[in-house]
């Protein structure tokens, strides 16, 4: 039964990963349904590892790795916890510096929300004031990016694209940190760093969002954003304080990571996925209509030209001057090409949803196997 | 040590900020001070944020940039309007006379300001984090002084903060104090590993008790009973059907997700044709 495991992959690394999940694995071979599940697990693990490694190696942008201070992580978590309830996004600015090909993020500050339509609230002013004050206390005041919280993973939007483009245009190495509080509450910190690929930057610069432009640049939804690996770093002093916390803290370690309930999270994610797929299908319908009307128009054009030629031939045979060539483009105005950028964004979003869902199911499958192992000894 | 006054609850963010601003202090400054922001309850004070304030300290005088403090507070209020100034912090072990002056200033801003000291120089081999509140003492009318009474300090977290702190704890283990964010299946794996460790410790304890090396403790025994009873006793077929149906659900969702991804990839290729 171990053959399927090895055959479906090529990488020895990943089989080792599986084996390290523990002695729980071989027991499942006995059950029928779980053999398939195991294959799926292997596939998922396999597809993730080389992809991640490939992504890290093929980053042809300025930043290969991001180093975040523990302080920044805590601040982002706190900001969301206090100010962002429900599906509002909270945003903030990241400060730090660039060292070689590493982007170090050393501090951050939050942005107030725009919910109160404060006419005299000036974002730029707030930012300037904040940076000036932080400079007084020797905090790095270089803007290196921004962060945003997301709701169930839905962050691929026009707004994000525009903001990140303007940031990346101004500062070569900037990134956007996406923090998923709901996934974090389930047990593991979910913080991802994204940048726009150079190809996408080109397109945004040209503002050419038509399908020819996209085809030219060969941008698919997978090559829109690139994920940069993150490393968390703490200074010695903070390590001391962490030791102290562990000593004095009376909060027991909760094991949300090992909770088995998957229903609500999965439901919500799938619902969002369905909405997006609906959007996508509408978009596809629009595009189909457009291409249909375009082809119809081409036909009409051909017919017109042919009729013209016939008439001209007739007139010539009758000795009359031929009709002037009319400006075809005025007669047959081509229909408006639908913007392809939205489709690309929706596709990217669907892709992200699918990834998150798959990650989640992989985790849950693992947990189910664990539960089975705990129960299995008795049964 | 009898303690009067409110309990001070600190979030880890505050301590991390203090440590960070201490590391970034100006040349020659021996300590850093700053404002504490938070919320006040009946019996407790919760400190949720802080920022450092530049100040100059010399033998006879101390100058604090009050303008700066006010400005920063205004800016912070825009983001979290519910936070108020509840006190101030200083790094260093002792409370000096300058502290008294600074404390006076802060008592103009807040009703009963808390003074927090964080010993970043680690004088007693530990980072002593203490909180004080001031009380008047002395002979009224003649020599009046101020006494700082200590308060209990507790650490509180939000749930998500707890998870963040757990992740940060893991950086202690690595030599250059770094830690990458692990992939999801690996996380479940490491959680399983931790549970295994805990189970081995418990088993070792039980062995010791059985062989008489350690005295049996009834309360621990009760906990163990609870633990064993927590694994639900379900007949095998029921459990298996439950497990299989759950697995099938998850597999179906994975299949759908893969299908959707294939679909959008196809769609893209078709459009680009």
What would your notes on this structure say?
The complex is a heterodimer of chains A (379) and B (273). Residues 1-34 and 45-58 of chain A have low confidence and may be disordered. Chain A has 2 domains: 62-113 and 123-258, Cytidine Deaminase, domain 2 (3-Layer(aba) Sandwich); 272-319 and 329-377. The longest helix of chain A has 56 residues, at 263-318. Chain A has helices at residues 3-7, 12-21, 24-28, 32-57, 70-83, 123-136, 158-170, 181-185, 198-206, 211-217, 236-248, 263-318, 328-331, 340-376, and strands at residues 65-69, 91-99, 102-110, 143-149, 175-179, 191-196, 225-228, 230-233. Helices cover 58% and strands 13% of the residues of chain A. With 379 residues, chain A is an alpha/beta fold. Chain B has 273 residues and is α/β, with parallel strands linked by helices. Chain B has helices at residues 12-23, 66-79, 97-109, 159-169, 184-210, 218-230, 236-272, and strands at 7-10, 33-40, 44-53, 55-57, 62-64, 84-91, 114-118, 129-138, 144-151, 153-155, 178-180. Chains A and B meet through helix 2, helix 4, helix 5, strand 3 and helix 6 of A and helix 1, strand 3, helix 2, helix 4 and strand 11 of B. Strand 8 of chain A pairs antiparallel with strand 11 of chain B, so a sheet runs across the interface.
- Main sheet strand line-up of chain B: 9-8-7-6-2-3-1-10
Number of domains of chain B: 3
Oligomer: heterodimer
Largest sheet features of chain A: 8 strands, mixed
Give the CATH architecture of the largest domain in chain B: 3-Layer(aba) Sandwich
Give the overall pLDDT of chain B as a whole number. Answer: 78
- Output the CATH topology of the largest domain in chain B: Cytidine Deaminase, domain 2
Neighbour order of strands in the largest sheet of chain A:
7-6-5-4-2-3-1-8
H/E element sequence of chain B: EHEEEEHEHEEEEHEHHH
CATH superfamily of the largest domain in chain A, called what? Cytidine Deaminase, domain 2
Task: Give helix % range of chain B.
Answer: 40-55%
User: Which strand-content bin applies to the residues of chain B?
Assistant: 15-25%
* Secondary-structure element pattern of chain A, one letter each: HHHHEHEEHEHEHEHHEEHHHH
What's the end-to-end separation of chain A, in Å?
22 Å
CATH C-level of the largest domain in chain A:
Alpha Beta
Q: Which word captures the global form of chain A?
A: elongated
Fraction of helical residues of chain A: 55-70%
């Amino acid at each position: 039964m171990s053959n399927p495991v090895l055959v479906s992959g090529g990488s020895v690394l990943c089989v080792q990963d599986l084996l390290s999940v523990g002695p729980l694995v071989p027991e499942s071979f006995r059950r029928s349904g779980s053999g398939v599940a195991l294959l799926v697990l292997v596939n998922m693990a396999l597809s993730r590892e080389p992809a991640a490694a490939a992504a890290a190696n093929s980053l042809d942008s300025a930043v290969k790795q991001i180093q975040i201070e523990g302080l920044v992580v805590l601040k982002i978590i706190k900001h969301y916890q206090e100010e962002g309830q429900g599906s509002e996004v909270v945003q903030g600015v990241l400060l730090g510096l660039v060292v070689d090909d590493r982007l170090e993020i050393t501090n951050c500050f939050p942005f107030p929300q725009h919910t109160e339509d404060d006419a005299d609230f000036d974002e730029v002013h707030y930012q300037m004031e904040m940076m000036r004050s932080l400079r007084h206390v020797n905090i790095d005041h270089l803007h290196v990016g921004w962060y945003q919280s997301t709701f169930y993973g839905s962050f691929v939007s026009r707004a994000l694209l525009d903001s990140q483009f303007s940031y990346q245009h101004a500062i070569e190495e900037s990134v956007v940190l996406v923090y998923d509080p709901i996934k974090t509450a389930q047990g593991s910190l979910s913080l991802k760093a994204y940048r726009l690929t150079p190809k996408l930057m080109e397109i945004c610069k040209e503002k050419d969002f038509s399908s020819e432009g996209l085809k030219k640049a060969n941008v698919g939804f997978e090559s829109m954003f690139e994920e940069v690996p993150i490393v968390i770093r703490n200074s010695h002093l903070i390590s001391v304080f962490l030791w102290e916390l562990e000593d004095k803290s009376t909060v027991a370690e909760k094991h949300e990571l090992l909770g088995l309930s998957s229903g609500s999270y999965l439901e919500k994610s799938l619902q969002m996925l369905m909405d997006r797929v609906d959007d996508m299908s509408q978009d596809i319908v629009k595009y189909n209509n457009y291409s249909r009307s375009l082809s119809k128009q081409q036909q009409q054009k051909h017919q017109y030209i042919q009729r013209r030629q016939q008439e001209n031939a007739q007139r010539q045979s009758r000795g009359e001057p031929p009709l002037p060539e009319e400006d075809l483009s005025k007669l047959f105005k081509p229909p408006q090409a639908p913007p392809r950028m939205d489709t690309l964004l929706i596709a990217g979003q669907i892709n992200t949803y699918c990834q998150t869902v798959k990650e989640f199911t992989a985790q849950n499958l693992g947990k189910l196997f664990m539960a089975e192992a705990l129960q299995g000894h008795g049964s | 040590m009898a303690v009067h006054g409110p309990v001070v609850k600190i979030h880890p963010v505050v301590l991390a900020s203090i440590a960070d601003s201490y590391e970034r202090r100006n040349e020659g400054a021996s300590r850093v001070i700053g404002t504490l922001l938070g919320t006040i309850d009946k019996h407790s004070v919760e400190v949720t944020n802080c920022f450092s304030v530049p100040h100059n300290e010399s033998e006879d005088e101390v100058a604090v940039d009050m303008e700066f403090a006010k400005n920063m507070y205004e800016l912070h209020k825009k983001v979290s309007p519910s936070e108020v100034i509840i006190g101030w912090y200083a790094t260093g072990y002792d409370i000096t006379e300058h502290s008294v002056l600074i404390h006076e200033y802060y008592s103009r801003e807040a009703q009963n300001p808390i003074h927090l000291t964080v010993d970043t120089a680690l004088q007693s081999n530990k980072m002593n984090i203490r909180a004080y509140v001031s009380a008047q003492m002395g002979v009224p009318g003649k020599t009046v002084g101020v006494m700082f009474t200590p308060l209990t300090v507790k650490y509180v977290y939000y749930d998500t903060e707890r998870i963040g702190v757990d992740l940060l704890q893991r950086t202690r283990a690595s030599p250059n104090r770094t830690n990458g964010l692990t992939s999801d299946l690996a996380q479940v794996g490491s959680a399983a590993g931790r549970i295994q460790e805990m189970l081995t410790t418990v088993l070792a304890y039980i062995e010791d008790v059985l062989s008489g090396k350690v005295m049996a403790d009834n309360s621990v025994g009760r906990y163990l009973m609870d633990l064993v009873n927590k694994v639900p006793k379900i007949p095998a077929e029921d459990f298996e059907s439950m497990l299989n149906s759950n697995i099938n659900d998850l597999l179906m969702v994975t299949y759908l997700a893969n299908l959707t991804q294939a679909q959008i990839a196809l769609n893209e290729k078709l459009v680009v044709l």
